[in-house]
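Q: I'm writing a short methods note and want an example of a predicted protein-small molecule complex. Could you take the sequence and the SMILES for pyridoxal-5'-phosphate and return the bound structure as tokens? Please keep the output block clean; save any remarks for afterwards.
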Amino acid sequence: MNDPKPALGVPDAVRAGVPTVWRNPHVRPAAEVLPTLPLQWSDVQAAQARWRRFAPLLSKLFPELRSSGGLIDSALLEPKESFARSVLGGQGRLLVKADHDLPVTGCIKARGGVYEVLWYAERVAEGFGVPDDFAAFADPAWRERFARHTVVVGSTGNLGFSVGVMARALGFAAEVHMSSDAKAWKKDRLRRIGVNVVEHEADYTAAVAAARSSAATRPQCHFVDDETSEQLFLGYATAAIDLRVQLEAAGIAVDAGRPLLVYLPCGVGGAPGGITFGLKHVFGDAVRCVFVEPVESPCMVVQLASESRESVSVYDVGRSNQTVQDGLAVASASLFAADVVRHLIDGVVTVSDATSLEWVRRAWFDAGLELEPSAASAFAAAVSWSRAGLNAGKGTDIVWTTGGGLLPDDVFQQLLNDSPASATRS
Ligand SMILES: Cc1ncc(COP(=O)(O)O)c(C=O)c1O
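A: Understood, no commentary inside the block.
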């Protein structure tokens, strides 16, 4: 480990591993910030058009997508009132963006991971002449061409699965580099679909670095870079368009008087960063985004609060990066994502493992939501943000439940057993 850096602006509570509500002092109007960013709305629209081009293929490859015509999106749910009150204390309306049930992968990483594999398939296809109907990519002739290519990624688990599922469905070889503490069942699930899983006795950042150098030496190989990829980011960003359609269909207005507050679990920052970027384009300052991190892996708050342009890690401020919120177990935020969200997010809430597990239990028994700890933490963050008086109570709060729908039964049962006894059952 490097010598600790001073990281002066990082709050003492974050350094001490105490659950914290950090308000971003540098948030600025969206209209000022968005034009300065490296990606623009036209990039999100192009990504949306790509999803549509591939929809017939996706619906052919994944039967569960037939009902949506090949579009990968999740439901916008409204939990019962007693549950909503236990989260927001009666302030505002609570909705759940149910990415834990996202078809194909059961987690938010499908939005970025599946999208980037589709983008790469299109790049490969350009060398042969792109077909009019992308459903042709399911044919043996195209699979044979794709089979000469390898898609490589480093992951805490869910990105690897999303990339792996899509890559294998098209016939690509797939290689996923994972840290030794990544969940065994996530590794087994990848091996079952024919992915080469490479384990590293190190953390997620080291696994990504290993994946990057492994891919760099090989021809016909694409590295999905969780730390810097614009394609991943754009795949996530298109979720904002889906959400706008759902809110309109539900008759929910979003404006200055009826703001939207969105709680987004954050690992390296790509998924919540991409969604924030998309939402700010769609709703401007009427949407406020709050990131959620484990107390032991608060990489984004450390990066932003330190005001450093160089990478500052959670180890630099004395945290361990050991957490049951495994999808968020990232020691160093993506500098790309941090730069995008620096002036866009309202703040970050850090959540302890005990509270995260408590919300796994409450979400299940009180709202029927099967969540992994990384996703359940978003409820805890909504509680903390509201209790801190930061929720005006005039609009809609959306908790983005980012994963858990495909947890094996025994793993989920164990999480419920591990949940603190203080949790109540309705
Ligand atoms: C369930 C879940 N939620 C949230 C995230 C955060 O995404 P990101 O690492 O892009 O910030 C992840 C990342 O793997 C995840 O698995």
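A: Remarks, as requested: The longest strand covers residues 287-294. The chain is about 45% helix and 15% strand.
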